[in-house]
Amino acid sequence: MTTFHLSGFPRVGAKRELKFAQERYWRGDITEQDLQDIAKSLREINWRHQANANADYVSVADFTLYDHILDLQVATGAIPTRFGFDSQKLSLDQYFQLARGNKDQFAIEMTKWFDTNYHYLVPEFQLNTEFKANPTHYINQIREAKALGFTVKPTIVGPLTFLFLGKEKGQSFNRFDLLDKLLPVYVEILNALSAEGVEWIQIDEPALAVDLPSQWLEAYKTVYQLLSEKVQAKLLLATYFGSVAEHADLLKSLPVEGLHIDLIRSPEQLSAFTDYNKVLSVGIIDGRNIWRADLNAILDFVEPLKAKFGDRLWIAPSCSLLHTPYDLSVETQLQANKPELYNWLAFTLQKVQELSVIKTALEQGRDAVKAELIASQNAAETRKNSSEIHRTEVAQRLANLPVGADRRKSPFAQRIEKQNAWLKLPLLPTTNIGSFPQTSEIRQARAAFKKGALSEADYEAAMKREIEYVVRRQEELDLDVLVHGEAERNDMVEYFGELLDGFAFTKFGWVQSYGSRCVKPPVIYGDVARPEAMTVRWSTYAQSLTQKVMKGMLTGPVTILQWSFVRNDIPRSVVCKQIGVALSDEVLDLEKAGIKVIQIDEPAIREGLPLKRTDWDDYLQWAGEAFRLSYMGVQDDTQIHTHMCYSEFNDILPAIAGLDADVITIETSRSDMELLTAFADFKYPNDIGPGVYDIHSPRVPKPEEIEHLLRKALKVVPKERLWVNPDCGLKTRGWIETIEQLKVMVEVTKKLRAEL
Ligand code: GLN
Ligand code: ZN
């Protein structure tokens, strides 16, 4: 017997049923009971899929109406006290207020769940946080599943990861010191689950895959000693998203009954655990990607493990399947248009089938699943040899790039002189980050065009009208460097993916990003090339309308990579450089067409950083090269801008400077220019445009606020190097506030300019 289990399942449903139910509930269109009923039916469907695939345990306690870390805050009583709610008697509306804010309190902050695109709600710990067990939510799921006849294994994030992921609020203290108070509450919760008759509880400790301070690392011993002693159920300690080989001795010494390791992210860590003497759960199907597995290849290395471990070998996806879309079989369009690609993919339901086949093969021999293995093998072989994927010209071009292809012809000091000579901009030039309000008319036009209800010519004309409108408004505002407004773009990555070779799109390939929000990443399946110009006609049209300088607008290679499902048959670095080279064709075409200020957005550069610091340099090196390749070959007097937001860059400033953009615009207003100070301390050499107002709100900034920020900026950045712009693009704003906000920005800039 080989136990097949899972760490978690997507919650949103095959067609985002949960999202629509949540949103209807928030609008008041359905009752709490309706929402709970829908959630319940989604859980049942999830469990049936797992059981039908022969999973030995279905996953419970992973389902949530918003976020599993918020649920854990509720279960441990650690909800932020500022809301004034009683965690033991939390209503559903209060639960959603924690997640979404209310009129008095801002929502609990969100941040990325390790290196995924899922966002969890960051626990707010205080020196006087009192924990209190409230396992109702988990118990209900267990009872529900058992009533339907399923054998369950609850999964809960462990105490060290939970504390580690939180933040200290209020008085200064170290949240680690809360551990002693937290542990008894964990014991109580876990025993409440045990009392429901569960044999195993999975405790996730993904924090083990990041650089943990030694104090935290050492605590694993005492924490798991205590939990193993006090908790009735058997504990499976799960790690994922990286290697834990360096902690192998520690992990093997813990008195838990089993360990789970991620062999997709880090196959080489297996050797550190082959002498483990308890249950070893191996993550052998990728929970983070959408590619069909090569089942024979997996069996080749799992069979010897099976021989060694016998029934102590468990098999599972590498991590929760939360990070993969639900069901490939609903992608009928993809199946019809790209049957080969369709055959190379596996979403959640296909992945559990793959595990089912592996389980059968391990228990009964490969012959018992001959047909499935042949199908898998065929898919792997066609993928290896497909000319849709492997374009020799792309590989050759990358291999034959001249040395220094990713470097500008001259250093910044010389370039900027040549640029200023024709740009003739005033001091503190004003500009925008790219997008202007994406009005409902724009979205309707796009939807109608996609449905075929609007002709291409009519759609094109509608977008051109929009561009003209944006240009005229910017002229009226007297901005210096204009943008065309990005009306024609649905999404900054999808737009380019649709125009580049090597990309494909799904219809229902949604993955939860946070709460009710899902993203549908493009699929990069083949070598990337640009068959024809993508943005030139829009940018040149915009330029034709005005005497002012029009800035071209592209999404950078790292961001495109980061927000896509990426092929796993070649390194990410190579895919990224291919995108960079493809973009360089666009940059040169823009330049040729007279668009000589070109912005290449890289908001996602920071989120690509590996979990472990030791891997940062390598990433920053190839990411930087890919970015620089995207402007390969431009003239000195062409001005390259980049834009970044969402994050801090203090610790990667050398790499940011290494991108060698002539101008960088960054989000800074909410941090009161703190970030800019870091750039200044670092002596960031090129031009810089710190955001002077927050674009997330319709609020019109007061002139004094912008003046304060700009004066602060002028103290640390030479006036010749400073630009003025909002924090980010304006696509989520309405027109009325946009005009008012930009008016203030330009007015204040002119006032300060007069003093310089
Ligand atoms: N150019 C994009 C815009 O203005 C940049 C978006 C972003 O940074 N996320 O919308
Ligand atoms: Zn931005």
Automatic annotation (TrEMBL):
Residue positions binding Zn(2+): 643, 645, 667, 728
Cofactor note: Binds 1 zinc ion per subunit.
InterPro entries xrefs: Cbl-indep_Met_Synth_N, Cobalamin-indep_Met_synthase, Met_Synth_C/arc, UROD/MetE-like_sf
Pathway the protein contributes to: Amino-acid biosynthesis; L-methionine biosynthesis via de novo pathway; L-methionine from L-homocysteine (MetE route): step 1/1
Keywords, comma-separated and alphabetical: Amino-acid biosynthesis, Metal-binding, Methionine biosynthesis, Methyltransferase, Repeat, Transferase, Zinc
SUPFAM superfamilies: UROD/MetE-like
Domain spans labelled Cobalamin-independent methionine synthase MetE N-terminal: 5-308
Cofactor list: Zn(2+)
Enzyme class name: transferase
Reactions listed under catalytic activity: 5-methyltetrahydropteroyltri-L-glutamate + L-homocysteine = tetrahydropteroyltri-L-glutamate + L-methionine
Active site: 696
Membrane spanning stretches: none
Example GO BP: methylation
UniProt-annotated binding residues for L-homocysteine: 433-435, 486, 601
Family from the record: Belongs to the vitamin-B12 independent methionine synthase family.
Function: Catalyzes the transfer of a methyl group from 5-methyltetrahydrofolate to homocysteine resulting in methionine formation.
HAMAP family: Meth_synth (MF_00172)
Name of the protein: 5-methyltetrahydropteroyltriglutamate--homocysteine methyltransferase
Organism this protein belongs to: Seminibacterium arietis
